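## retry 2 of 3
previous attempt timed out at serialization; input unchanged, resubmitting
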Amino acid sequence: MAIRAFLFDFDGLILDTESASRAGWEWLYREHGHELPPEKWELVVGTTGAWSPMDHLEDLVGEPLEREALNERRYAHELSLIEAEELRPGIADYLAAAERHGLKRAIVSSSSRRWIDMDLARLEREIGWDAILAANGDHSRAKPNPVLYLEALELLGVRQDEAVVFEDSPNGVRAGKAAGIFTVGIPNAVTKDYGLDEADLIVDSLADLPPDELLARFN
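## retry succeeded, writing output
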């Protein structure tokens, strides 16, 4: 069966926001004399609500924190780092190949639609998506729950065996696999040590796997 749709995660896959996000929390922890625990941070990558770094930091400090003010400063630091980021290698080639072959393109993310739209606008990539699905703070819909991927299939009008999922995190890979979709794992600087072994195929970069070569696997 020929592939009819590419389903992309957003954070860490299309754009490396993961490095900036971790750096923002590392900065905040160190400002309070502590280190962000990497084994805890792994829990939150690719999902929402799995662990609260602010709760943890407050426990370490031993007194209430000015959460709103600290979050604003952390977020500003994170955004300053993201401003330097461009599309991850190979993404533009896959988007162009999808257009060339008439494939549908969707973003499926545990983040918010507002966050995705903001970054796409900066990259001038708002146009060309057939669907954008986001958890929007609803933990029950975030990955590894496959619900967003199943909804994407329905919106696009394609079956599981007619789509390919591209993911950078274990939570994302599990969601794609649970939805019954062929899943490609592409680790980034944050997730390279997490292990994406549950993916059907793992590549260091999409730039190493030309889209026509991937599509040829299904024809």
